[in-house]
Amino acid sequence: MSDVLQLFSLSFVVFTLLLFLRAALHKAFDLLEFQGFVADYDLLPEALVKPASYLLITLELLTVALLLFSASRSLGLLLAAALLCLYGAAILLNLRRGHTRIECGCGGTPQLLNRNLLLRNAVLVVLALLPVAITPHASGSIDVAVAVLAGVCLWVLYALLEQINATHAALTSKRV
């Protein structure tokens, strides 16, 4: 049973790596748009928006790099969880302010802020922290291949769910 848990754990590492790679690249390739999203959250003085945007992208890329190596994997997972908590706090603060017409800026399917994003981030934090508690280990190349494929499948499922959530939110907002 512990072998299965370790494979799941490695799958969650792969999923988290892909999640942060996609997010960082999406933000980096449209930096001006991302800076606009950071500004829209209205959490920083205007002078800090650009440096904060660069810092967030750098931290996401650092997360990816740390996740690549077993020696730094736990640190990468903790950084991933911390970033997800930070993003969740920013979303929660703006939802409490009544600011829902803000693009999430999460690095994927465009979505306006909503409570579902808080639930999503909470689940992502758990998925990032599980491999810290259950050290991922694969005993052979087949185990690694299975874990990587499972992580990719999780990421594809996540992308599909994100698209469904964004479509639902868009349809709901048009009815209002």
Automatic annotation (TrEMBL):
It is found in: Membrane. It comes from Proteobacteria bacterium 228. May be specifically involved in the processing, transport, and/or maturation of the MADH beta-subunit. Keywords: Membrane, Transmembrane, Transmembrane helix. The keyword Zinc-finger does not apply. Its main location: membrane. The chain crosses the membrane at residues 6-25, 52-71, 77-96, 117-134, 140-161. Pathway: One-carbon metabolism; methylamine degradation. This is Methylamine utilization protein MauE. GO terms for biological process: methylamine metabolic process. It is a multi-pass membrane protein. It comes from the Bacteria. GO terms for cellular component: membrane. Residues 8-132 form the Methylamine utilisation protein MauE domain.
